[in-house]
Amino acid sequence: MISLVKRILHEEPYKKDEVLRELGTTVENLDQVSLTQNTKHIQSFKLRQRALHVFEEALRVEKFHKTCSELSSIEGALQTLGKLMSESHESLRDLYECSHPQLDKLVELSQELTLGARLTGAGWGGCAVALVSPETLDKYLDALKSKFYKELGVNDEKFPSLVFSTAPNGGACIYIPN
After folding, report:
1. Domains in the chain, start-ordered, CATH in brackets?
2. Which GO terms describe its biological process (predicted)?
């Protein structure tokens, strides 16, 4: 799919008229079916960039799963997972354009002290998640506090409510008693 997107969709944004022509539809139908009140005014669409993000992200998810499933070495796996997380953030920032300058700054700072970092949640200025080794966790938290949150006026008392560490876990499940 990635090669198909690169071959078929052009890099320049598609004008609304071009989208209408390609889909064989009307402005009214496009607005009603595909757009919202907040997006009806948009006159150009970055179809190639958005499609590349979606398909490349799906490939990263598959690689992430495969790396976890075929765990040959912890260190090698963690490096791979961190790299995939960082690539994901770059794609979210550059192709999907759902990041925010402050979030990019936070992720950039995180890259220096972690195995990888990316935005998470809905984007547009939300949260970041980072893969950090236990050995560097305290140094990383101190760096976040002094190089990022202090500039925002966050004091030591409020910091723990904004930044916390956790460890991988089994996740949600349904328990059915016998």
Report:
1. 46-162 (3.30.70.890)
2. galactose metabolic process
